[in-house]
Model the fold of this input.
Amino acid sequence: MRNYIFQTNRLGFSEWDLSDLDLAIELWGNPLVSRFINGNGQFSIEEIKNKLLKEIQNNLNFQVQYWPLFELERGEMIGCCGLRPYNKGTQMFELGFHLKNEYWGKGYAFEAASAVLEYARNNLKTEYIVAGHHPENAASAKLLGKLGFVYTHNEYYDATGLEHPTYKLKMA
Done:
């Protein structure tokens, strides 16, 4: 049984730890998930381990991470959603979400992202949250608009080697 740091009607947010490598591989090892977040289209096991360690480190250093998401009804991990530091030296964060493909189109990303933004409003001293998406990911573009984000510019994303549309949401 997982401990949840916060919940929505359908989702529980947990925290990554070293024992979650199998869950991380299940998520980021899926080419349908990784195709929009990795220029190679998928991650190696070593890259997934490094992603997991980075999430754990972000939690220790900044009290945020792309928290693993669990469907409350069945207890299954469906993906992750959360925040990471955006610009070093500033108190600005970037919203992100990665869902297993079988959970796409069911409102989970909106539900999770809304909860994360509420967490940010209540727990972080930040004026803005930024978000970006792969240029071919129309579903993420639509979701960011629905959440109230406004397009500001394209930004180079090293992991994909592409310019990603980037958005900002005023928190105050």
